[in-house]
Amino acid sequence: MKFLTIYTPDPDKPADFGPEQQQRMGALIEQGFKDGSLLHTGGLLAQGSARVRLDTGRFTVTDGPYAEAKEVIAGYALIEVASPEAAIEQARRFLAIAGDGVSEIHRIVEGGAGCP
Asked: Looking at the whole model, is its pTM more than 0.70?
């Protein structure tokens, strides 16, 4: 099963992401690529972003960065694991290093049944 995980840091608790955390995160990422559970990962910039919305036939575009710090998505990972429980465990290991925040997990539906 493939999942997209989206990380939003807690805006009220700035992360202390020093050399030790960087080393631990690097090891986690390296292990994920090595065992095949991590397919892709990256950070996202708030600047240069946009939201496109369709509401009753009318499109609106809102340019970022957004006023609400809680809306800033800092990064994402595309993972492939055996179950939703394994995806949750991946998110737990990530948050233990990244610090306070939220990691949303979305299952990816690929081709065939269930795809619009």
From this structure: yes
Fold of 2-11+19-107: Alpha-Beta Plaits (3.30.70)
- Per-domain residue ranges of the chain: 2-11+19-107
**DSSP 3-state of 67:** coil
Task: Note whether 1 and 81 are within 8 A (CB).
Answer: yes
Compute the distance between CA of residue 59 and CA of residue 56 in angstroms, rounded to an integer.
8
What are the tokens at 11? Answer: 């805006």
| Cis omega (within 30 of 0) for bond into 116 | no
The pLDDT tens digits for 1-25 are 999 999 988 888 877 778 999 999 9
Distance of CA 5 to the CA centre of its chain: 4
Scanning the structure block, which residue is given the tokens 């394994």?
86
Q: Is 34 exposed, middle or buried (0-12, 13-18, 19+ CB in 10 A)?
A: exposed
Question: Given phi > 0 = left and psi -120 to 50 = alpha, else beta, which region is 81?
Answer: beta
Q: Residue 50 has which token pair?
A: 């946009």
